[in-house]
Structures
1.
Amino acid sequence: MKALQRLIQGRVLLLTICAAGIGGTFQFGYNLSIINAPTLHIQEFTNQTWQARTGQPLPDHLVLLIWSLIVSLYPLGGLFGALLAGPLAIMLGRKKSLLVNNIFVVAAVILFGFSHRAGSFEMIMLGRLLMGVSAGVSMNIQPMYLGESAPKELRGAVAMSSAIFTALGIVMGQVVGLRELLGGPQAWPLLLASCLVPGVLQLASLPLLPESPRYLLIDRGDPEACLAALQRLRGTADLALELAELEEERTACQGLRARRPWELFQDGTLRRQVTSLVVLGSAMELCGNDSIYTYAFSVFREAGIPQEKVQYVVIGTGCCELLMAFVGCVVIEKVGRRVLLIGGYCLMTCWGSIFTVALCLQSSFHWMPYLAMSCIFAFILSFGIGPAGVTGILPTELFDQTARPAAYMVCGALMWTMLFLVGLGYPFIMKGLSYFLFVPFLGVCVCAAIYTSVFLPETKGKTFLEISEELHRLNFPRRSQGPTWRGPKVIQSTEL
């Protein structure tokens, strides 16, 4: 609670969080959820467009194929965006990269807005690809920007704000996509183009806020700009200790160039960090939570919820994740990262198991579909308080300034690839496993909980240098004697 009070007192930091989030992870959540509502309308538009061009209706399996491409091009664009984020963050800085990223949003909105009038479903496909690129860039750079701008005692809470804006975007997308608002048969181009609003809000607000102090000092070598940014972000707080920590980190990184993504896998000093990134980043996408959003209507129909009420139930799932993201933001600096991750995955395993049993018995007891629905809500609550927010903090805290952009590239590429594969394979899992569709996801949750409890160190309240030193000791446990760790090897250049 003290951390939250201090966050509110630092008004510039709070405004920075909001400005980065509204055009960052909010866009990701918003565009992930709004595509559910116009499914049938876009499929009908695709068929009508093809018939107008050729005089023949498009076969059902080809309509489904085009729709699958429209959905799947979003994570594919996210993969490209994740690979683009690292070079952008180094060349332009964190703040400018977020601003330039809105070029993709504007281009996508133009394509969405004129697709119906132009009679082109290809414009929808290209627009989804561009929105994916934008989401891939922002999901990597936003937590990097905020994590580097926050004081160490608030770093976890500030980084968790990315999960809050993701959940808020999901809820807003679900609400705007209601049939009574923009989910009708004539309004779907406007629904897809409504992602322009958060982009405009970010373009209007973020230029007024400071750049990451760490980027200004360590990457740009500009101590005056760093001090000015810190003074704006911290207000009247004493900055002597934080400046000393920044200078110490700058000394450790002086003369270094930014790491390339493949170099992370070749460096033995980063073995535990990279393994944690791969295991827990994959687990977040393979735990089954995103599948609930991608195929929310199908899951709830399988649970026995009447079709006319499904859209309102789906909004409840987004509200659950939003609520628990707020709770996680408040408690993360008190209980730590490990507790939230382990507890979240264990609870997801529990509720997923009950959900599977409820699906198997739903024909035997009339109340079983409602138990299944309750388990889905509980599953999302458990995801929201732990894995949803904490996983995004890992690249910021486990890697130093030179490796951080490359770590986010690896993490982003991995997560978007997993999202693409799950979105592609989930219909077949649902069809093949039927009532046991969550069993593979439960295995992932168990493995993630075990890995976190055994291998992931706690980073709560530690400086980046303290975390690096602890991870160095864990990577080389038998080297208790000899020279102490003094940071990475000194090499020249600061380019990726």
2.
Amino acid sequence: MEELQSALGNRGLTVSNLPEKGRCLFTTKDFYPGEVIISQEPYVCVPKNSIADHKCDACFESSNLKQCSGCKIVYYCSSTCQKSEWKLHRLECEAFSKLPIEFRHQITPPIRLTIRLHCRSKLQAQKTIPTSAMDNYNLVKALVAHMSKIDDEPRWLYAQMANLVSLILQWPDINKKEVAENFSKMAFNAHTIYDSGLKHLGKGLYPVISFMNHSCLPNSILVFEGRSAVLRAVQHIPKGAEVLTSYIDLVGSTVTRQKALKEQYLFTCTCPRCIKVGQYDDIHESAVLEGYRCTHNECDGLLLCNSDDNGFICQQCGRLKSKEEIREMENKIKSLQDKARIAAESASSYITYQEVIALYKAIETLQRQLFNPCCIYLIPTWEGIIENSMKLEDWSEALAYCRLTIAVYQRVYRNFQSFHPSLGLQYYTCGKLEGVLGEAENAVKSLTKAVDILQITYGTSTPFMKDLFSMLEEQREIEALINGTDY
């Protein structure tokens, strides 16, 4: 840990151990919005692969892929990527190659991630792969497994998965208890890796990053550049302050966030945002984001659960809406959502895209009758319409719904000082569509807002941001030409 403290000290950070929190990351200097606090390569990672979508094991690219001739389940985009991974992959490749081919393709990402974890640990112990202060198995050992807190069912599952790992690797000295604990550590500490468009690429374990604690009012945000995890400040973090990030998507009410944290991470958040649970402002905000609306004589008031718990009463006109009435509407929405999901998965033509959009619009109609205008449940519906409208090249329709999502994201992420990438990406999409439609003035406004947000979260040097800057410059030039002004 002394080597780690020294390495972190050079970055303006230190690890502290607090009784009520465990290991925490604190600053030893000031950090400002957009500044990189720390970056880390994964100790191990695996791409998210499917039958129709494979990725390079080294860089997560999805083009020019060639299958490993040994195990036939891993892909690389170049000889450079293959060579960079060979020392680690050689061990698992030997093990996979001994399995029946049909069984190899059933190895799930969590199992493969844990196999790679133990392969890397073994290779580092043999000094085949180098170690460093921020890249060694002792950091994995320092992570908490919560084995005494988890239920019997996941504990039993981890034990069975450990047996499977032992069966695959065939190492006589493997410690099955340690393997089972590592499965639990992965469940609590592994991060989902996303690209700049927030598309799921894979899973990775970043031990030092995992030392950070959660807050629903975080002062930093974790993004990924390829496989590298990059933590940036989204506000001024003074010297001596704790670096806090969010473990979950912050879309949702306090009750929803608390439920997610308790189920996934076994703790109750006590951040400044969560301690307001049950207070009027928090109840009102929850009703706006997730609650029902009154439609009596176009009242449009907020519905809150009444004291008898037999329905929801409008805070404006006093009308009671029964739970049965709401449940019936929710069942109709759920039925349509199932149909839309199935239709979207198989859609491949002009007609089927139209059918998917029609289903999403039917869902939207019911949701608007049931929920408030800024309800978060509308977002996936609108995104479904946007995605399929773009497949039809109906740019006007896509733009109209993109603008609707921005209004909700602004409300949802207002506690994030409007620096959340989801909001920035909506402005980016909006600007692209406005550019296609020849709305240069609006495109400049939207892309400028996207830059203001995303340069804080993504920096300025990534390929995505360079494309965004180029797009903004292009629209400014077009706007100048239209207005007859110098640029």
